Amino acid sequence: MTETSTIGPQSVMREVLEAYPGAQRALFRRYHIGGCSSCGFQSEETLAHLCQRNNDLDVEEVLEHIRDSHDQDSTVLISPLELAQLLKHESPPKLLDVRSREEWETVRIEGATLMSNPTLQEILSQWPRDAVFVIYDHAGRHALDAAAYFLGHGFTKVRCLDGGIDAWSLQVDPKIRRYRLG
Amino acid sequence: MEKLSDELAAGLRQAAREPRNMGELADADAVGTVGNASCGEMMRMWVKFKEENGRKVIDRATFQSFGCETAIAVASLATELIRGKTPTEALALKSQDLSGEIGPLPPMKIHCAELVEGALHAALDPGSSSASTEQPSLHSEGNLLDNFMSPPKPAGGLRIVLLDSPSEEKPAGTS
Predict the structure, then answer these.
(1) Which fold is adopted by the domain A4-67?
(2) Is the Cβ pair A102, B39 closer than 8 Å?
(3) Cβ–Cβ of A178/B162 closer than 8 Å?
(4) How would CATH label the architecture of A76-171?
(5) Nearest CA to CA, how far is A82 from chain B (Å)?
(6) B7 vs A91, which has greater pLDDT?
(7) CA A129: distance to chain centroid?
(8) What does pTM read for this prediction?
(9) What ipTM did this prediction achieve?
(10) How many CB atoms lie within 10 A of CB B54?
């Protein structure tokens, strides 16, 4: 595991991501780097090179932003109990499920929409940037990536269900059966 | 600082929010597709021609995109821009021309315009080198879109094991 203290301009992106798991999300939220296959990066590319080919970004500023990435992730999370309360409101948030279709067909939170390419296109092109929506996955990891993707595209009220549908089952709705991926 | 200017970001957002010419054109004369559909970044363009003063010109063009907001915005503007042009005139437009009224894109978003340019070439000049139907990704590692749209599946397929009933192991896709 790469230590955070050793990360600098000449660190390759693999090392940066090992030291700061939320770095990729942080990079896209602010700099639009790493969102899709064209603006992504190679694992052996140095941070300095990545900054240089993206309009000569200030490497030190980018490093500082990456160091804050964990705190940035925390602000996006919503607990299952808080979401359960929001869903009782007159205008509940939309729910987006970013798991596989197989998982969706097994268990899902009522009222959710399964993410697909057409849904992605509809969100980017038609949803207002202040739309309130909550993204969930199985245990919370991919949903954070999805939330960062939409935040990077200007959506301001995207949240991510902390712990995913697994935590929802444990804390809110035990009728939703828990599972693991084998 | 590298971020898109507020003016450019607003222009892109507006164009993506109310995209023009989005969707399939049922009676199109030409169709072109570029991109990497497996990761969701793809652009397809349909073109319909008409005769005008003895010239064959583009009557209408539409698009479908599974790309980012910028790609949708540029495609929307480009399909307006090429209307009334001959195929030769349209093919002469470069990626930096296609963003139309919102102006040139910064280097970090040029790939979005190149996706549109590629789709246009694929439709109008399918034999050209710039019209390859499957564009390789320059930087294919490390992107958020793949992480949540196409997460890796274990070898042998996805297997969902329900925890509260150990005897009930459920192979994926049999529900």
Answers:
(1) SP0561-like (1.10.3910)
(2) no
(3) yes
(4) 3-Layer(aba) Sandwich (3.40)
(5) 24
(6) A91
(7) 17
(8) 0.63
(9) 0.78
(10) 5
